[in-house]
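Continuing the series of single-chain predictions for the mutant panel. This is the parent chain; the variants come on the following pages.
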Amino acid sequence: MAETNGSLERPALKNDRYLRALLKQPVDVTPVWMMRQAGRYLPEYKATRAVAGDFMSLCKNAELACEVTLQPLRRFPLDAAILFSDILTIPDAMGLGLYFETGEGPRFERPITCKADVDRIGVPDPEGELQYVMNAVRTIRRELKGDVPLIGFSGSPWTLATYMVEGGSSKAFTKIKKMAFAEPQVLHALLGKLADSVTSYLNAQIAAGAQSVMVFDTWGGVLSPRDYKEFSLQYMQRIVEGLTRESEGRRVPVTLFTKNGGMWLEAIAATGCDAVGLDWTIDIAEAKARVGDKVALQGNMDPSMLYAPPARIEQEVGDILAGFGEGTGHVFNLGHGIHLDVPPEHAGVFVDAVHRLSAQYHK
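Parent structure:
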């Protein structure tokens, strides 16, 4: 493929309904993709991961990361691909020593405990320590051949900080909340560095070929309303304000997703993002009534519904589509990531139902 001014000439997008829906433009049917669609519920993913050896080796191999990104698109008529990577790439690049404990999830050898630890870390170079992510983005864009758009992503500063301070996954979040309430200046210094890192990281993904970006604030919902705005939302807004919003001649939409963030929809919508992700704990009709004229909405079927018989899955899809109602501005998704033991054929029922049942709302 020809190089022009340092960037690749890329084929025209054949299916852009996902990007159009995020910008509240007309579509023929409601677009659909699934959080964690490239992953461990698929036997072909497990086979590719076995070739890689371990999870991070899979993330760091551009060809294999591309392969697992494309696997769900071969099975299902999804309207977007999402970069196969992990939210903890930034803390890993900051030198915290990321590793994965069997059955325990991610851990850090050198967690952040004090101001000196925060002072020691820098903003990673996206084409340096994180170049493997950009290589994966470039490879995936090339291999997609314009079939569907590619979504880039990052964790939110607050969510990344929880792992960095707790040293891994947590249930009570006592260490980071202790820092928030006893030494807030230390946490704000960390969150500031993370906001700068995420902005730089997402802009590099856009430059490498991501056509939309998403910020996952998985743990924002553990905060009180006041603390959410202070420690999570203001830093996501800073990222939104610093993002490249146009590339390759079209708008690059940004979606913010806070799990258990339904009470803060208006505040999230006011950040300047294009879309707000919803988990399953809020009714989509209520969400649309509250913020639907300002932003698009993404969501929001309970991932566990994919354990149900096909007829029940279709019923749930129909109910959510009816809740959103007519018009554009809805990207159908699960309210969080697909579970690892969901039968792949149930995911297929879900995707087909969204396309088939949504056409009536887009006449």
